[in-house]
Amino acid sequence: MKALVYEGPGQKSWKDVPDPQIQETRDAIVKIDTTTICGTDLHILKGDVPAVTPGRILGHEGVGTVTEIGSGVTNFKVGDKVILSCVSADGSCSFCRDGLYSHCLGEEGSVGIGWIFGHLIDGTQAEYVRAPYADTSLYHLPENVSQEHGVLLSDIFPTGFEMGVQYGQTKPGDVVAVVGAGPVGLAVISTARLYGAAKVIAVDLDANRVEQARKFGATHGVNSGDADWREQVMAQTDGWGVDVAVEAVGIPTTFEMCTNIVRPGGNVANVGVHGKPVSLDLERLWIENIDISMGLVNTNTLPMLLKLVAEGKLPAEEFISHRYPLHDIMQAYDTFSRAAETGALKVILQA
Fold first, then answer.
1. What is the DSSP string of 30-47?
2. What are the φ/ψ torsions at residue 162 (nearest 5 degrees)?
């Protein structure tokens, strides 16, 4: 089969690799029908995720068709259309029982790490993929949800909602600022209203993204390139700062921006993938009574979010900016990596 293979920092190739095989009784083999590219894939290519070694097939999002199942799989059959969660869970360990799938203790990949696709085992940017723990890591795709919309539930919708909205402890009436209006930041914006945010402020260097964020539920927009960007954010509060500041980029500057706009007693929710250390001004922040959260998505909200997408309650179609055949994945990566020029949000790849 063909697959997108990581060859080391800054290097990737679309080439022939062996077809995946059933290795464990709980495995399924899935033919990839639709996949996409994540900002995390770009972090990997920059060398920010050293656990990804040369030869690894990239990708952790996908919708596909089950072509083979192990003897221990009971919830799926050959021919089923499924969503592949970006986090794999054995469903029985202590962390999984607590809903902390991101730290599944199953032996697949590495004990204690639930994100394995395109990280510790071969991923979904390929014609076929082996899916461990199929019964507890795959989800049936309803007939009234398209493959393109389904793939958004692999990662960005759960990540934005869980790590931004839920971990940020968003409450009805809150003012939420989302720093970074890329796909995951827009997923935060589009799900913040589920918890009753009164104002959602999109903050980004790209004026087009700031404006586009309104289609996803942002009530206000601020260009962080403006000299008075902070004053513009504070003007939308009572002067003390936002209740929830969400970091959705993964660089030191944007994290520090969040700590500079959060109110006393507020929450900073880090969603971005960081490849470098970030300064934390504890000498200033310790007295502010703020909470700082971070982490890897669990995808335990995927079934609920799937229902909302099925009923048209989330702006799934607005996320899709480009479409390519799977075999044009190299061109798709180029488009996605130059988002400021191309206007790329989610780039859909179809087999």
1. EEEEEEE--HHHHHHHHT
2. -70, -50
φ, ψ for residue 322, nearest 5 deg: -140, 150
**How far lies 76's CA from each of 66, 72, 130, 299, in Å?**
8, 10, 14, 19
Parallel, antiparallel, or unpaired: how do β-strands 242-247 and 262-270 relate?
A: parallel
Give the position of tokens 């890591």. Answer: 137
Query: What tokens appear for 113 in the block?
Result: 């790490």
| pLDDT confidence bin for 340, thresholds 50/70/90 | confident
| CA atoms 32, 36, 37, 38: torsion sign | negative
Question: 3-state SS string over 259-315?
Answer: HCCEEEEEEEEECCCCCCCCCCCHHHHHHHCCEEECCCCCCCCHHHHHHHHHCCCCC
Task: Report whether 263 contacts 233 (CB < 8 A).
Answer: no
Instruction: Check residue 76 and give left, alpha or beta (phi > 0: left; psi -120 to 50: alpha).
Output: beta
Neighbouring C-beta atoms of residue 105, cutoff 10 Å:
16
* DSSP class of 244: E
- Whole-model pTM: value is 0.96
Kind of pairing between the strands at 2-8 and 11-16: antiparallel
Tokens of 91: 């469903």
Q: Measured between alpha carbons, how far is 316 from 298 in angstroms, rounded to an integer?
A: 20
Q: From 245, 277, 276, select the one nearest 259 (Cα to Cα).
A: 245
pLDDT, one tens digit per residue, over 258-273 is 999 999 999 999 999 9
Question: In the block, which residue shows the tokens 């959260």?
Answer: 293
Count CA atoms within 13 Å of residue 223 on its CB side.
7
CA dist., res. 350 & res. 127, Å (int)? 10
Pair 289, 269: CB distance under 8 Å: no
- Reading the block at residue 110, the tokens are 């590495």
How far apart, in whole angstroms, are the C-alpha atoms of residue 43 and residue 181? 17
Q: What is the per-residue pLDDT across 73-123, written as a single tens digit (0 to 9) for each? A: 999 999 999 999 999 999 999 999 999 999 999 999 999 999 999 999 999
